[in-house]
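Human: Not sure, check this?
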Amino acid sequence: MSDFDAIDSLLDAVGPQAELPPCQVRRELRERARLSKAQVARALGVSPSTLSGWESGRDPAGEVRTKYAYLLDGLNAKLTNETETTTAEPAEERSVASGTAVAAVASTSSTEPGQDEDEVELLAVPEPCVLCGRPAQQRVAGFSQHLDPSGCQADPAQTPKSSLTAPSAQVPRTARRPRPASGKDTAPRGRAFQEPSGPADLIHEAVHAVLAEHRGDVEAASAVLLKRAIPDAMRLLDETRKGARYDVIAHPWIPDILKKQTSRGADQIWEARPKWTRTELPPGKHEVTALDINGAYLSALKTHLPLGQLEHSTGFAHDRRRAGVHLITPPAWEHDAVLPNPIGQRDEPGPLWVTEPTLRLLLRLSGPKHRLCEPPEIHESYTSGATENLLEKFRIALKDARDTALADGDGLTLEYVKAMYSKFVSTMGESNYNRELYRPDWMHIIRSQAFANLWMKALKAHDARLPVVRAMGTDELHVIGDWRRVFPEGRGVTEVKVKDTYTAGTDAEASTGEMQ
């Protein structure tokens, strides 16, 4: 392809976007057609939460916009036909149909504008008529149009003869938008979830459908599933939230501390990621086992998440009914020789913003059961009413699918499930890959919960007299001794597996650099 061919191809791809009615009209069309958000979302290949955004002010783009416009025009035409069939008023005595925006573009006749029940807005600058495309100076129920049918009689050189007129009645009507000609079927194909029987089966049905579409080619199916793991995770979330007590607030106001300072920078939240290696081992030579914690982020979905918009507060008290982020002065940590600092390896002293799991971990360790540190000093907080079970059904659906895949030796489903929960967590902040959910507070909280879970496993090993050698990230724990009496072995989310074994100690002249 030459340079000019590439430019021509690019120019061909750039064209006018499909026109959409106002957001309130979109919702009204769907509701009048008695369609649920889930039904429409499934047909378009998006999640119900995305559709909610389109009905409340946001606009789709690209191919899905064309599909959405095609659907709305089809609903408009169908509802208009039903309205004209059931009414007893003669068509030639009606102007623009009244009552709704759908009916507003349904019929145009020679009746006086004053007889219409909709408010007519005069436009200072003419806009294209929704019926004929020629400039119109009136807008009814959000649609620019000619109130006089003669205004829609376009010049023959500009408008094709096959127009909006019904062949039999010869009355101008709203035409259904032609199906987009793209050289292929524009119906959403390959969307993972088709007619699901329930959240527990959504994932398996997705895998089976993609495998069938690619004739059993596991590699090709894997590429497709991993590519759409994010939207499919959002659809699964919507399915598991049906009938729930709380709604998911997908785009609340976010304080500046949760916003990136630069495009490639970070916000002000400290997640307390562990990166700790024991500086001095017990005397002698030891066999160290590197344990891998299964499904760390999957387990971390069970955490206290703020439900709504974060509210600012000051003071030292911690309300366990709320969750969010907190500015604290962490306590001194005097056990670094045997256990990692619960706030991670931090070089700078002083106050810092931490998440709910980190604060709760510090409060727990300062309590009467452990007494490992002093309580942290809380200066201010951004919190909301919280629940630990907001994502519980979502987590269980993923866990059950993972367990079944392990039992069946189904590596494809296993990788798909892992991609769903890991990408779900990593893209719910400021990400171009997931516009359906903007909750950087949740992202930090879930990550910190995974780190806190690892820290508690390190404490469990220490309390069982297993020397802890290293704790890294979300899933890496190195210990000395018979770890199987403390942790169950396996691949389940409550189990651990061996990642590596090595020898360390003074006799082997081992150093921290040799611990791989």
Notes: The radius of gyration is 30 Å. The chain has a mean pLDDT of 80. The longest helix spans residues 63-86.
